[in-house]
Amino acid sequence: MPSKQVPSKQVPSKQVPANQVSDKKATSKKVAPKRRLFGGGPHAGLCRQLKGLEIESVLEISVDDGTRALAVLEVLQKKCLQPVRYAAIDEFELGGSTFGLRDFYCLLREHDIRPQLFPEKVDNGLRNVANNLGAMDLVLIATTADRWQNPVTLHLLSRITHPDTLILHYENDAWVRFQPETGTLRRAA
Asked: Which of helix, strand or coil describes residue 177?
């Protein structure tokens, strides 16, 4: 005998306009993964030099587009137990840069970095760093040599360094350790 088919109850579906469709995937906030700048990025050479060093404070002179700061702090934070103190000296839009002070600050704050910024010329910035922050463990100089390799600036640089400070400057597409002449960075008594 043929089996009787029992009609299933169908619940009427409610028609929802396409623009109001709520899908879990559509409503969840998509967060882009943090981009790792160490593995072959534009700052890989610098980051390789810093890997494994115990550095608690960084001063960067001339910040460019801010990606170098993120890459450096990512590498240094792996070795340091507390947040690395970061400061920067740059003229930003005052020096004709298209990357402004606010843009740089917002970029770092997005990555939970609390920068201390000095938007001024190198010499004035070094004075303020010396008076407000003291000695730094790492100094990165990405400006032309004629803007910082002079007696006044080198003296000011001596005020923010200690015997173990690493000073690197960008020269001929590479980061080079600055080796001052004997007595150039000697502190005044």
From this structure: strand
